[in-house]
Amino acid sequence: MGLLQLLFRDPLAFFLLAIPLLYSIIIHELAHGWVAYKMGDSTAKWLGRLSLNPIRHLDPIGTAALFLVGFGWAKPVPVNFANLRDQRKGLIFVSAAGITANIILAFLFFLLIELFSLNRFSTIYTILNYTGNINIMLAAFNLIPIPPLDGSKILMGFSSTRFQYTLQRLEPYGMFIILALLWMGALNPLINFFRLIISGIIRLLLP
Fold first, then answer.
1. CA 102, CA 152: separation in Å to the nearest integer?
2. 26, 52 Cβ separation under 8 angstroms
3. Is the pLDDT assigned to residue 202 strictly greater than 60?
């Protein structure tokens, strides 16, 4: 059942869901900035982006997409990778931070369902289940190795300088490529593959 269907089936659950969903993309970006700060880049801190204030993070289109299609984005936290103490490790760790944050959030939401043995027809179960699954989707989507998604920068951290340059040149056109591939359904198998891996890891960790 999609989020719009939820709005008509259970409006209370939909509106209660809005807060954890919005903070899922905010925490994703905050994680990037926090790890960058710990690795030597203070750009996000100087710009006031190491904050849970939604006004500093939310992107109108990305927020709408989150509720319409199940994945979205906030305004990217600025990171100057040249300031990082180890640029190659920085590419990997800073880029992986947002994905890791979403996986941890998903785990926590599903853990709450397990710990309290929630009835699957209850409003609380619906909120936790939806938010957990959308965090898995956010993590899986961002693992796609096409700029400007996090997966491309993780790949760059393991790649040669020449290949990094190729990906950097692709970045201005990346979102158009991603949207076109999504429209054609070409990315669905990759996203589903990442979702299965993440879901499997979470299931292994749950009691």
1. 17
2. yes
3. yes
**Active-site position among 13, 17, 29, 155:** 29
Rounded CA separation 117/136 (Å): 21
The answer to whether 50 and 7 have CB atoms below 8 angstroms apart is no
For residues 17 and 6, the answer to whether their CB atoms sit within 8 Å is yes
pTM, full prediction: 0.91
CA 125 – CA 175 distance, rounded (Å): 34
> How would you classify residue 86: left for phi > 0, otherwise alpha for psi between -120 and 50, otherwise beta?
beta
Q: Is-catalytic flag, 29?
A: yes
Question: What does the pLDDT look like over 8-40, one tens digit per residue?
Answer: 777 887 788 888 988 999 999 999 999 999 999
Measured in whole angstroms, the distance separating CA 115 from the mean position of its chain's CA atoms is 25
Residue 61: Cβ-neighbour burial (10 angstroms; 0-12, 13-18, 19+): exposed
pLDDT (0 to 100) of residue 66: 76
Q: Which residues of 152-177 are buried (b: 16+ CB within 10 A; e: fewer)?
A: bbbbbbebeeeebeebeeeeeebeee
Q: Are 57 and 25 in contact (CB under 8 A)?
A: yes
Is the pLDDT at 94 greater than 90? The verdict is yes
For tokens 């939806």, the residue is 130
Dihedral angle at the C-alpha atoms of 130, 24, 142, 159, nearest 10 degrees? -140
